[in-house]
Amino acid sequence: MSAATEALRQSRVSRGAALARLALRIGGRYVMRSPRLLFASVERRGELRHDLALRSADEVAEELGVFAHWDPLPFAAASIGQVHRAITRDGRAVAVKVQYPGIARSITSDLRNVGLLRRIVGAAFPGLDTRSLVDELGERLQEEVDYVREAESQELFARYYDGHPVIRVPHVLAELSTARVLTSELVSGATFEELLGWDQREKDLAAETIHRFVFRSLYRLHAFNGDPHPGNYLFHRGGRVTFLDFGLTKLFSEHDLAPLIDAVRFLVFEKDYEAFRAALEQAGFLRAGAPVATSVVVDRFGQFYGTVLQDAPMTITSAYSSAIVRRFFDARGPLAPYSDVPRAYVIMQRINLGLYALLGSLNATANWRRIAEEIWPFRNGPPSTPIGEAEAGWERNRAGV
User: Fold this and answer.
1) Where are the domains positioned within the chain?
2) What does the pLDDT read at residue 330?
3) What is the pLDDT of residues 221-231, one digit of tens each?
4) How far, in Å, CA of 305 to CA of 269, rounded?
5) Whether 54 contacts 73, CB under 8 Å
6) Burial class (CB in 10 A: 0-12, 13-18, 19+), 381
7) What per-residue confidence (pLDDT) applies to 365?
8) Residue 148, Cα to own-chain centre: how many angstroms?
9) Whole-number Å distance between alpha carbons of 59 and 145
10) Would the pLDDT of 253 be above 80?
11) Is the dihedral of CA 371, 373, 374, 376 positive or negative?
């Protein structure tokens, strides 16, 4: 064994021991404080949790010893962790996401008690395969608490979108990340609430970028960032958007995407409604041989393609997005007993509904059909907007053309 290899092995052993000590200390404190959390008032419970999280974050910084400067007060918080600013020893500004102690164990415990949820969902939507749906969500949630997996997903997106004119994904610092700590480049920008105060032109540009990110990631990268929460976006003028939080990422195969591409092609371009129905049956959205007219199938499922049916500018309003959501969750329609959300597409439906809601809140206007044609792999249409022109140049550079 070479000296370099031995040094690396010793470093890993030392690092592993340090993380083990850290986990034991934080976990022990969490257990000891649990009775106080249980019997405290609501206000005091919040204070104790906040104090616990601050102490845990400080211990991360102290034990790993790699940061030149560390802000003990988090600047952002989420359901399973909080984010701190720090400066690395080589001078890089970073965001350090620290997972709350015990959260992974809590989620795993909660997922064991899903029988009631399955019964409730099954009663409301008789056609759904509730076991498959709940199992898919459970698997994704378990992945969400694994920051190693999240780091890999974030880097997948960051590498793909490197140099993109309007889409940015911060790179991960793998050497400062663990299963419960995720360190990435620090990015500043406007929040979604601030974006709402910008002029409509800026809102439209931001909406176009989000739309391009969602569908380019699906059709070109074959990956979905499954959490469409507006808090996961940072906005910059000119349509530039930074995308954060890749804990809920779903990868797709060519086989997964094939019936979706067929459905778009048959409905939007060829107007072959029987073939459109067959594509939905192949994907598993509709039971084969369901005793309903194809016109009903087109009316029910065609609504989700409403933004691309016409080659013209369209404004997505809050009323329009709300109607889409209501139609999706309609358990009394004639197709309800024969419709399903296949496991492979559960996260996709979450993103689609979230995207409609977000674009509706922006009152966004664009020729969504032309933008989609740029991205659909069976069309590869010409650029239709200035952002599309810039994106085409970025693609040429990536291809070395």
Assistant:
1) 251-399
2) 75
3) 999 886 767 88
4) 12
5) yes
6) middle
7) 98
8) 16
9) 19
10) yes
11) positive
